[in-house]
Amino acid sequence: MVRVIEKIVKEQDFVSFVNIVVGAYPGRMDGAQPTKEQLKNLFMYNQSNDESLHYYGLWENDKLIGGMRLHDFQMNLFSNMLPVGGVGLVAVDLLYKKEKVAKELIEQFFSIFLEKNIHFVALYPFRPDFYKKMGFGYGPKIYQYLVEPLSFPKGPTKKHLKYLTIEDQQQLIDCYNRVAAKKHGMFLKTTSEVSFIFKNIENYVIAMEQQGTVQGYIVFSFKKQSDDNFMLNNMVIKEFIYETPQALLELSTFLNSQADQVNRIEWNTQEENVHFFLGDVRNGTNQLIPSVYHASAMSGVGLMYRIINVKGFFDELKTRNFNGVTLTLKLIVMDSLLVENSQQLIIEAVNGTINILESGSYDVEVSIDVAELSSLIMGVVTVQELFMLSQITVSDEHYLQVLQQFFFVIEKPTCLSAF
Question: What is the pTM (predicted TM-score) of this model?
Answer without folding.
Answer: 0.92
